Each structure stands twice: as structure tokens, then as C-alpha cells.
């Protein structure tokens, strides 16, 4: 094949990645984008982070951090390797690769809120240049890259540049590659999580494989961005549906006086065909309660009703209500009403040992308990204060973990490892445990729900 300027650009991109001289721009420096920026920085790439949140940009510029599990020393090391953060999109033009990691929440009608993706792509479109690679990582419905991202990029480019699907045409390259991180899960190192990639055309896939191959041990190419978008949703819907299944079986097991946790432990000894999922107070986080509804929304365009997703959502969304009715029953057994009861909630994060409150079921539970007249306080080593979130505005301060006997009920919603559960049980009058955190402790004041 003759060497055209574009194929020379492709070669140059691959050589720069190999030599670690490619400049990488990460847009959205949150739970996904900041760790990704640090991974590239560790591999000696010069990384520029872009964020509209000036407070985050300033914190990073000062060598600080805003994510508990990332110590400031990691930011300072990255800065020594050339990492910087900015809110100036004009600098996108300097990059060889741009990776977009902005939020994809649901709006008040439970539909995809695409404003973050749309605003980001509109902001970078003028600066995207020939031979650059643009990758979307945000979880979204199949079709987003081709139907939303590309039209905005093409409309907004100052030079009239278009996406190219081949090595011989002019333009820039576009791919989708979902983030698969599981915060707080240290069983698999981040670079051991295979990276799924779907490019718009084979060359885009090849460039994205080179880019991610420099930090991930394995890349998994698929035939299109839509296949990669759907892969991520399949993974999260699988979790959502299986958690709903086990939540439903927990409710039945309680009526039958069977311990579902014991059953799961026994079932998981089967060496094939079974993967354990655990019941809890409801779904939380930016992914599992949200992502499945991106697909059910898109499915409507195809006159298709995603019944598993809807049913799983119904069961999982009912779990905070189950927790509250369990508290009411437990108080009742102590001849106490919910109205006026003093309740200490342990853990507000959506899962153990992380500093993430998004979509946490604890917020719904607090609201329901307060509506029932309870006086609710919380303790969480990861949150000194709970202010305004997407749905709730609680304005509560963390209460010290002391004098537990003063509460009518201590409610375990998040099973952080820092807690001394035997001591909590010893000092409390009544413990309602939604996570089996008190496993192995036998005491009459524990109610597992
Ligand atoms: N958090 C996870 O564990 C996880 C795991 C897998 C996938 N994801 C997906 O990754 C994406 C990002 O999630 P996250 O948890 O990092 O979100 P986040 O809210 O922690 O971070 C997003 C960042 O993007 C910034 N931002 C918003 N609009 C911007 C814009 N126009 N330009 C520049 N920056 C902008 C925000 O200020 C914020 O710092 C989502 O689609 C999410 O579904 C998240």
C-alpha cells in the first residue's frame, strides 16, 4: 500500500505510543478518569487532564487529591512525569489521544442524561485534528458513539474534518472502550482487567488497542463501538439481575426461616455454573442502578420491552423499604415505635470501604426513617458530612461512634472493614444488620434483614 499522509500519521501514532511520547488527554477527572490518568503517567506518558470542576483542577495543580484511595503522593509523582490538569479545551489540539470519562446519570424521568457527553463533545469538537484518536469510555446505550458523538464532532470541527474509517482517508479516529473498574475491589489489579475496544473502522480499533495495550495486559477488540457499548451493559445488567434474584430469594428465605447467607456460601462451592451474588439494602453507585436503564430506554426505539431489567429494578428499588419495615418490626419487638426512635446508621457509602455516595440506598433509608418520625444520625469513616446530592439534600454531620447504648437501634447499612462488629453488638441495645456484617456473632439483640 502506498504511504499517504494519513497512513504516515497512523505509523507515527503507533511509534509515539511505543516510545511513550504520545500525549494523552483525559476528559473528566473523576473516579474513572483520574486513576486512568495516573496509570498512563506511571507508564511515562505525559498526561493532561481536563475537567470543568475548577476545584478539582486546583487541587491536582497543588499536588492534592479528592479521592480517598488515591494518596497525594501519587498525584505528586504523576506531576513529576508531566501530569497537569486544566479546564482549557484549546489544549485538546496538542493531544495525540483524547479519552472521555464524563458522567452518564439518569434524569428525573429515569431516562439517559446525555448532557455531559454532549457538552464535552461540543467543547472539544473545534480542536480535534487530523490523525487524533478520540475514545469514549463513559457507560452508555449502544449507538451513542456513532449517533451522538460523531455527528457533534463533525458539525463542530473548525476545519470541517470528519471521522475516518480507514488509513487512507483524511480525518480523525473514533472508538468506544468501556471502563470496567470495580472500586474497592483489590482482587484484580487494574491492568489485569481486559480492555474491550470497538473502533469506528479497523484502523481506529488498531490505534486504540495500541493505546490501551500500553497499560492493560490484554485488549479485546470487537467489531463496532455499538458492540463494545452493549458489552458493558450486558456486564452490568447481569449483576443487576442477579442481585435482584438473590434479594428476592432473601425475602422468601426470611419467611421460611432459612439463612440466605449460609445458602449462598454452600452454593458457591459448586465448581461450575454458579457465581455468588449477595443481598443488601438496595443498589448503589454510578453504574448498576443506572446503566441498565440506558438500554431499556434505547430498546423502546425498537418497540422492545426489557422485562428482566424492569423486574430487577422493581425488586432492587424495594429493598430500602424492606430495611425500614425490618427496623419498624425490630423496634416493635422491643415495644418501641419508629416515631421518636433514636437510630444510628452505620455506613452511608454505597458499598464497603469506598468514599462514594452516589445512588446509595442509605440516603433513601434515611429519608424514609425521618418521614416515619425517627431521629436519625449516621457514622461513616469516609464521610464527615453528607450534603446535597442528585436527589437528596440531607445536610448531616458524621456522629462519633460512641455511647451506642443511647440509640434505640443501630442500623448497619454499609459493612466497612473499619468497624469492630463484636464491640458494636456488645454496646448496642438493638442491631439491625442489612449486610451480614455480624456473621458469626450470636446475640439476642441482632436482627439480620
Ligand atoms: N465509578 C465507577 O466505578 C465506574 C465504573 C465503570 C464505568 N463508569 C462510568 O464512567 C463514567 C464516569 O464515571 P465517574 O464515576 O468517573 O464519574 P465522576 O462523576 O466521578 O467523574 C466525572 C468527572 O467529569 C467531569 N466533567 C463533567 N462534565 C465535564 C465536561 N464537560 N468536561 C470535562 N469534565 C467534565 C466532572 O467534573 C467529574 O470530575 C460514567 O459513564 C460511569 O458510568 C464508572
Task: Describe this protein with a few key phrases.
single chain; elongated; about 15% strand; 15 strands; five-stranded parallel beta sheet; about 450 residues; eight-stranded mixed beta sheet
Main sheet attributes: strand count, strand direction, barrel closure: 8 strands, mixed
Spatial strand arrangement across the major sheet: 3-2-1-4-5-6-7-8
Any idea what the radius of gyration is?
24 Å
Helix fraction, binned, reads 25-40%
Which strand-content bin applies to the residues?
A: 5-15%
Q: How would you sum up the global shape?
A: elongated
Task: Point out poorly predicted stretches.
Answer: none
Contiguous helical run count: 13
First-residue to last-residue Cα separation:
67 Å
**How many E-type strands?**
15
Arithmetic mean pLDDT: 95
Bound molecules: nicotinamide-adenine-dinucleotide
Brief overview:
The protein has 449 residues and is of the alpha/beta class. Helix content is 38%, strand content 14%. It has 13 helices and 15 strands.
Q: What this model shows, in words?
A:
The chain is α/β, with parallel strands linked by helices. Helix content is 38%, strand content 14%. It is built from 13 helices and 15 strands. The protein has helices at residues 5-19, 33-42, 54-61, 72-80, 115-124, 144-156, 202-213, 225-255, 260-267, 291-300, 307-333, 361-371, 421-427, and strands at 23-27, 46-50, 84-86, 97-100, 133-136, 173-176, 195-199, 219-222, 342-346, 375-379, 385-388, 393-397, 409-412, 431-433, 446-448. It has an eight-stranded mixed beta sheet, sandwiched between helices. A five-stranded parallel beta sheet has the order 10-9-13-14-15, covered by helices on one side. α12 (361-371) links the parallel β9 and β10. α11 crosses α12. The longest helix has 31 residues, at 225-255. The protein is elongated. Nicotinamide-adenine-dinucleotide is lined by residues 27-33, 50-53, 56, 101-104, 116, 119-120, 123, 138-139, 179, 181, 183, 286-287.
Amino acid at each position: 500500500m502506498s504511504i499517504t499522509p494519513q497512513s504516515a500519521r497512523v505509523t507515527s501514532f503507533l511509534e509515539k505510543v511505543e516510545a511513550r511520547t504520545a500525549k494523552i488527554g483525559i476528559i473528566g477527572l473523576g473516579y474513572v478518569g483520574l486513576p486512568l490518568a495516573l496509570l498512563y503517567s506511571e507508564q511515562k506518558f505525559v498526561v493532561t487532564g481536563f475537567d470543568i470542576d475548577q476545584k478539582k483542577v486546583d487541587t491536582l495543580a497543588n499536588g492534592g487529591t479528592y479521592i480517598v484511595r488515591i494518596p497525594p503522593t501519587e498525584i505528586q509523582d504523576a506531576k513529576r512525569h508531566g501530569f497537569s490538569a486544566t479546564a482549557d479545551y484549546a489544549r485538546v489540539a496538542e493531544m495525540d489521544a483524547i479519552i472521555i470519562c464524563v458522567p452518564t446519570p439518569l434524569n428525573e424521568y429515569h431516562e439517559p442524561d446525555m448532557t455531559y457527553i454532549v457538552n464535552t463533545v461540543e467543547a472539544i469538537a473545534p480542536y480535534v485534528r487530523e490523525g487524533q484518536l478520540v475514545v469514549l469510555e463513559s457507560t452508555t446505550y449502544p449507538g451513542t458513539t456513532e449517533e451522538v458523538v460523531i455527528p457533534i464532532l463533525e458539525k463542530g470541527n473548525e476545519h470541517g474534518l470528519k471521522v475516518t474509517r480507514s488509513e487512507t482517508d483524511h480525518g480523525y479516529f473514533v472508538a468506544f472502550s468501556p471502563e470496567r473498574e470495580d472500586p474497592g475491589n483489590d482482587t484484580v489489579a487494574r491492568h489485569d482487567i481486559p480492555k474491550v475496544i470497538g473502533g469506528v473502522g479497523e484502523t481506529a480499533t488498531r490505534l486504540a488497542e495500541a493505546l490501551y495495550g500500553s497499560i492493560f495486559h490484554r485488549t479485546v477488540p470487537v467489531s463496532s463501538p455499538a458492540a463494545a457499548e452493549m458489552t458493558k451493559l450486558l456486564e452490568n445488567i447481569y449483576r443487576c439481575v442477579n442481585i435482584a434474584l438473590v434479594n428476592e430469594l432473601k425475602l422468601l428465605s426470611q419467611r421460611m426461616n432459612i439463612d440466605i447467607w449460609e445458602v449462598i456460601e454452600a452454593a458457591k462451592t459448586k465448581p461450575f455454573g454458579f457465581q455468588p451474588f449477595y443481598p443488601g439494602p438496595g443498589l448503589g453507585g454510578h453504574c448498576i442502578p443506572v446503566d441498565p436503564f440506558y438500554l431499556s430506554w434505547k430498546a423502546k426505539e425498537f418497540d422492545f420491552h426489557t422485562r428482566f431489567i424492569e423486574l430487577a429494578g422493581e425488586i432492587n428499588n424495594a429493598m430500602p423499604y424492606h430495611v425500614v419495615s425490618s427496623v419498624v418490626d425490630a423496634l416493635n419487638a422491643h415495644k418501641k415505635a419508629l416515631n421518636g426512635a433514636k437510630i444510628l446508621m452505620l455506613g452511608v457509602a454505597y458499598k464497603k470501604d469506598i468514599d462514594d455516595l452516589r445512588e446509595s440506598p442509605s440516603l433513601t433509608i434515611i429519608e424514609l426513617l425521618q418521614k416515619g418520625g425517627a431521629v436519625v444520625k449516621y457514622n461513616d469513616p469516609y464521610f464527615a458530612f453528607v450534603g446535597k446530592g442528585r436527589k437528596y439534600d440531607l445536610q448531616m454531620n458524621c456522629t462519633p461512634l460512641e455511647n451506642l447504648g443511647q440509640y434505640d437501634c443501630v442500623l448497619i447499612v454499609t459493612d466497612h472493614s473499619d468497624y469492630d462488629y463484636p464491640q458494636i453488638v456488645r454496646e448496642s441495645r438493638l442491631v439491625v444488620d442489612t449486610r451480614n456484617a455480624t456473621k458469626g456473632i450470636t446475640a439476642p439483640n441482632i436482627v439480620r434483614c
